[in-house]
Amino acid sequence: MTDRNITDQGYDTLRGLWDKTKQQNHTRDCLPDPGYGFWHAGNTLDTFMDYLGRAQPQDYKKTAAQLAEEAVTIFKETSFDKKTGYDPTQYPLDQPPLQGCWWDDYGWWGIAFLKVHQLTGDDRHLHVARVCWHFMEAGGRHYQGDNPAAEKGGTWNHDPKDKDPGIQNVVTNGLFLILSARLYIQTRDKQYLDGALAQYHWFVYQLDHGAKHELNDDKWLIEQLPLDKANGFWTGDQGVLLGGLASLRESILQEEPKLAVTLSEMCMGLVSAVETSDLMVWPLPHNQGNILHELQKGNTWRFDLNGSVGKGVLMRYVAAYLEKRDHFVNFNAAAVTNTLQKDGTFANSWVGDPEEKMNDDGCPNLGVLTRQCSGQNAMNASLLPPWS
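The structure assignment produced for this chain is given below.
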């Protein structure tokens, strides 16, 4: 059994890192920065909500509301087109989406604020989720690339004609699928179901055209998109896709039972691959379990400001899908505990590999926050009831 004290201390440490980085300091090393910090703020808020909802410490609903207000301040202090002050709790849904951040950033924020709403019941928090979906739908889903058949129903992470061209990757599309399906569950507004189904069919097309890496016994993983032989696999991709498929299944259980069965089979194949494939896990000696890791390709470090989050995102959605604590969850939470650093933060590598270093791209505070957030997601998973 994982030490509950480590889980609680991990949350407290993450709160301290949040407090240290939540102020706009006009550098890249803060949460209100549109380059790195903004999406990490949304991801961290999601991690907080999972902890509060499962651990339920004293005044946890009040704490959830407080963190949400701090997040709104971060949103308002993030620069969009050299302007500040946009309040997502009041932004009109009939106005054009804000420019300046990548469209997938709003996926992280919207999903997190749906969890905030579930804990607080405050409709302002539901409105933030709606706003984020609106930004993704009205922004990232209306670009035209070179292959309309492959792009149909998909979501771009950025304008493909920008000086830094955008792509249709797994993360952006997975986040839109999760947000759409969960908004439909919450509101029964058909526009969200339509968005979710269109996004799902985009994934079906990609999986049927080379993105599906099939293993034995119906296990499979999704490769990074757009397809490139040098890309390989990322744990975060598997996580958001699992979250999207599972959320869509929950949203259509009554309306489309046949599709729900298909989605269940897809989820089971993906989870089985994640928990056993050497593309995702490293087996510890003495039967200590299969532990998530990021593959290193050549000289490219996966433990950068984005890659270090992937393992935690995958743990988040494995836990959300299983709704129980299985052996895989137990082993990974124990590994996070066993690699705890002397300063009380969680490690880059849960298998204790000293070569797995953080490339923080000149943002040391965000670097620590991202790996702390990743480890905390594994610890949050350990708060679930045991598999019976």
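Interim note for the steering committee: Residues 20 and 302 are 25 Å apart (CA to CA). The two ends are 14 Å apart (CA to CA).
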